[in-house]
Amino acid sequence: xxVNNKTALVTGASSGIGKAIFDELIKNGWTVYxxxxxxEKGSVENVDGGKMIHLDITDLQSIDNAISIINKNEGKLDAxxxxxxxxxxxxxxxxxxxxxxxxxxxxxxxxxxISNSSLDMLRKTRxxxxxxxxxxxxxxxxxxxxxxxxxxxMESASEALRMELKEDxxxxxxxxxxxTKTEFTANRLMVEKARTSRYAxxxxxxxxxxxxxxxxxxxxKVAAKLVYRMINRKxxxxxxxxxxxxxxxxxxxxxxxxxxxxxxxxxMYA
Length: 270
Description:
Layout: E1 7-10, H1 16-27, E2 31-36, E3 44-47, E4 50-54, H2 60-73, E5 79-82, E6 88-89, H3 97-125, E7 128-132, H4 145-164, E8 171-176, H5 184-187, E9 189-190, H6 200-215, H7 220-231, E10 239-241, H8 244-255, H9 258-269
Parallel strand pairs: 1-2, 1-5, 2-4, 5-7, 6-9, 7-8, 8-10
Antiparallel strand pairs: 3-4
Helix pairs in contact: 1-7, 2-3, 3-4
């Protein structure tokens, strides 16, 4: 294992893409703090060569506590990788206000808040923020509308953040995984009205197709290696999809008429 003096914080690091990023950075000699809601509050646990701390991304006090631990122990931060997130499936019509708010609290508001809270440490190192989005943040998917919306909002704010932080030397990069074989599939939430929805038949078929694609998808290690390449670049791209096929899809989205893109996605998932 290599050794260097760089420090990273990876949110949602207990499984999936977050754990793969956690492991990849440790392998390359970084001091890595991962977060999980299952860790005891205030403690620092040694896990697989890295450190795990408690974080509930929807709790402002929890965010402050996590940042305080790293600031006290390290005094700086070279990379923040915002990976924590979840997915709520269901028709937009069936999604309650509370369910919409919950999706945005995790995938958008929490990500933006921990980014803001990390800036003083990142300024010391002219570090980088990597926000893990999704191809679904670029290509809206039926029955995943709130998930797509939350990732799209995060991407838009990330672009603004990149411009605002340029003079501080802080880089901001968006990573867009496609179908990836992780626990995300099993942990996907359903809206409360799913069982009685007028869309139930189409929705269930669509989600079944998504789940099959995800479980036959790429390894989270592919995303982790891409993240590692981006944090070492002096001027990383604004966004980068994970895998050649997904980069092609995102590129075609820019070229093809919107009606055609929606028709194709409808054929795939609706």
